[in-house]
Specification:
The chain is of the alpha+beta class and 460 residues long. It contains ten helices and 22 strands. The protein has a six-stranded antiparallel beta sheet with strand order 17-22-18-19-20-21, with helices on one face. A five-stranded mixed beta sheet has the order 10-16-15-12-13, with no helix packed on it. Strands 4-3-1-7 form a four-stranded mixed beta sheet. Strand 12 and strand 13 form a beta hairpin. The longest helix is centred in the C-terminal third of the chain and has 15 residues. The termini are far apart.
């Protein structure tokens, strides 16, 4: 093509609004390759694009044409450009670079980099709809909740409960392989193991979605609760660490153990002056400070355990009832506990485990513990302290325990005895005129006898 023809074509193109470079491009494709020495920047809408995971390449805007200059400094317009990214995954969060692949007949000069499209894909927020985060329901019934998870795509959904300082997985669900999935959460029965429990729905993060953790508070309503002002059924009765030193005037299992060890037990676990003298002799013999009191060092030297030092006199019978238990079940729990103690030796002011030792009030206290009733909220270990020996009298005076007539007695009631008007003994009534009581010697079955002061009813 001679210069006159080229000039004529150029003038015509300018007159009709065509880019002469496209004509040159056509000529280049018809002949040798056009080398691009510089590329023009692409428009802002194309340069950087942001999306949420779940897209395809069709969602990305890509220009079809690039412009620039060839190695002669002439303007060039390149049509039919294809944009490629080898590692693109629209379902996975990350940063992706799309580079142009020019059509045949075009190449970039050495060191010349064509413009690129930067695509950023962010994770979708995970949503859980329909979830009840505060639940109040009567114990014993089934508990479920219908929820919807988005995005789903086969994700794992955990139903967890919080206790002992961490989350514990109780149920595992798998969502359907769709964008949004419905499922039904079914809570295990332990949701009513306490009046209040903490739960959560936890969904781990994936390539295309953030993690989700939604807390749930469940308040269980008990099937049975004592009415009005009377002692309430408790969720938990704490075991209190005691660890007190033994001295004159004290009683209970620890005193009994010491007296048996030093061969100064004479039928009553009461820390007397003779007990103190025996302790002093032991301390001198074992090169301990001879105070006559049993401190922890003396206790351990006698061969007893550290655990018993802290907990022997503060035992609490585990509850035999749940929030779903009926009134009758609470009564039966007390009776069942009393039967466990039959044959246990009698120890003055003791409220220890079955087969270790209890007295009359200690037996009744443990029966009440098994039904979730705490008559000694300061801890059963104080029963062993001086001036607290007559717990039977404290039970009788407690206005939060209902008094009933002897003629109205029922299974699970406490029979209160007296001597000269002073309360001196209690037992647990098991029906049919029979009772279980701790008398000097051991815990036995017996029949109700005279000198009844009255009747207490802890389960109303």
């Amino acid at each position: 093509m001679n210069k006159k023809v080229i000039c004529f074509i150029t003038i015509i193109c300018l007159m009709v609004g065509l880019a002469p470079a496209s004509i040159f491009a056509d000529e280049a494709r018809a002949g040798e390759e056009t080398v691009i020495s510089a590329f023009d920047s692409i428009d802002d809408p194309f340069v950087e694009q942001n999306f949420k995971a779940g897209i395809t390449e069709d969602d990305i805007s890509k220009p079809d044409t690039l412009t620039g200059k060839d190695d002669q400094g002439k303007g060039v317009s390149i049509s039919g450009v294809v944009w490629k990214c080898s590692d693109f995954n629209g379902m996975k969060a990350g940063k992706y670079i799309f580079a142009p692949q020019m059509p045949k007949g075009y190449s970039a000069a050495d060191g010349v980099v064509p413009p690129t499209i930067k695509v950023t894909i962010e994770k979708n927020a995970t949503t859980v709809s329909g979830l009840s985060t505060l639940i109040k329901k009567k114990a014993g019934s089934a508990l479920s909740d219908k929820i919807s998870v988005m995005p789903a795509y086969g994700r794992t959904v955990y139903l967890q409960r919080y206790y002992s300082g961490k989350w514990h997985t109780k149920k595992i669900y798998t969502a359907s392989n769709t964008d949004q999935a419905a499922m039904t959460l079914s809570y295990p029965k332990e949701w009513y193991s306490r009046y209040s429990t903490k739960w959560r729905v936890y969904i781990p993060e994936t390539d295309n979605a953030e993690e989700a953790a939604i807390n749930i508070s469940i308040k269980a309503k008990s099937v049975y609760q004592t009415p009005g002002r009377y002692l309430k059924i408790k969720d938990v009765i704490p075991v209190r660490k005691s660890g007190y030193s033994l001295k004159t005037g004290m009683s209970g299992m620890k005193v009994y153990k010491v007296q048996k060890k030093l061969k100064c037990y004479y039928g009553r676990a009461k820390y007397t002056s003779s007990t103190k003298a025996a302790v002093k002799r032991f301390q001198k013999k074992n090169k301990l400070k001879a105070t006559g009191r049993v401190d922890k060092a003396t206790w351990l030297k006698m061969g007893f355990s550290e655990n018993n030092w802290y907990y022997m006199d503060s035992y609490v019978t585990p509850k035999r009832v749940s929030l779903a238990s009926s009134k009758k079940a609470h009564v039966n729990a007390m009776v069942a506990t009393a039967k466990k103690y039959v044959g246990t030796k009698y120890v003055w002011c003791a409220a220890a485990r079955p087969k270790q030792g209890v007295d009359c009030a200690g037996l009744v206290i443990q029966c009440m513990y098994s039904a979730g009733i705490d008559p000694l909220p300061q801890g059963s270990h104080v029963y062993a302290y001086s001036k607290n020996e007559y717990t039977a009298r404290l039970l009788w005076k407690n206005k939060k325990i209902k008094h009933v007539k002897f003629s109205q007695r029922k299974k699970g009631d406490i029979i209160v005895y007296h001597s000269g008007g002073f309360v001196n003994h209690v037992s647990l009534y098991i029906g049919g005129g029979r009772q279980i009581e701790a008398l000097p010697g051991k815990v036995i079955y017996s029949h109700i006898r005279g000198n009844v002061k009255g009747v207490l009813r802890p389960v109303i």
